[in-house]
Amino acid sequence: TDISNCTFYNNKALETNSTGYAANGGALSTFSMNNSIINITNCTFANNYAGWVGGAISSDKNPTKIKNNIFYNNTAGNGTNTWNIAQHTADEMTDLGGNIQFPAKFTSNSNDFNVSSTVTIADPKLSPIGNNGGYGRTMALQSGSPAINIGNNCPVLDQRGAPRVGACDAGAYEFGSVAPLSIPGLSIESDIKNEASSQILIYPNPTFNGKFTLDLTKLETNEAVKVFVYDALGKICFEKTVKQNIVLFDLSLNLKGIYLIQIIQNQKIHQLKLMNMN
User: Fold this and answer.
1) Alpha-carbon distances of 16 from 21, 49, 75, rounded to whole Å
2) pLDDT by position in tens, the chain (length 278)
3) What single string gives the DSSP state of each residue in 205-237?
4) pTM attached to this predicted model
């Protein structure tokens, strides 16, 4: 079973009897899935609750493998007992890297667990859940989040359909990337994953104050193309129609960070990242 690019937010497994034993796994419960391997990749688990244990996940230890996930502020009631254990998970899972948890487990008891023995404990700096593009709500990473660039071998796109950029991020949302425009008939050619072989060149990159050259020579088209520049929050900060193969830009970008360059050519959308050093 593969689960990827999902946001599990504010789900609840409530007590069904006085003991609360049945209230396991606020977001996911995968007990007794013998002979099944569960791979959970680039998901965000936040503010989920279980009446017994495993505010985020209740799972058998060995079959569940986690990679590039965020576990934030998941809680468990322990059946009204005051144990304060197993808040995020009912047991440790197999860690394939890139996972972040906050807060850490509260006790040193043998039946209290972090999601894995090697998980990074750090506040992921999540924004409130909201419409950040795509078909479902996500929790955007704030600038400076330790989840940025911590991932490995992420899916090509995030939950919103936005391309993963450079060293990818943990969780369902990729910082500095923009969900594609929903335009019928257009296909998206993401040049971000392997910019060295891209049809479009940007230089210098990183740049300073938004001054860069866009080389469209390899597109081999005489038709005008539309160029959009988005900031890390998905806001359009520049747009222009160009006909030249080599175009100089001086955008006077005031903020340091990653920008997305989007070029619409015929029935394709090309996307690349630009690092502005300011």
Assistant:
1) 8, 14, 17
2) 889 999 999 999 987 665 556 788 899 988 766 678 899 999 999 999 999 899 999 986 658 999 999 999 999 999 888 999 999 999 999 999 999 999 999 999 999 999 999 999 999 999 999 988 876 899 999 999 999 999 999 988 898 888 887 889 999 999 988 876 544 444 445 544 444 336 788 888 888 888 999 998 888 777 888 888 877 656 678 888 998 889 999 888 777 777 888 888 776 778 888 888 87
3) EEEETTEEEEE-GGG---S-EEEEEE-TTS-EE
4) 0.66
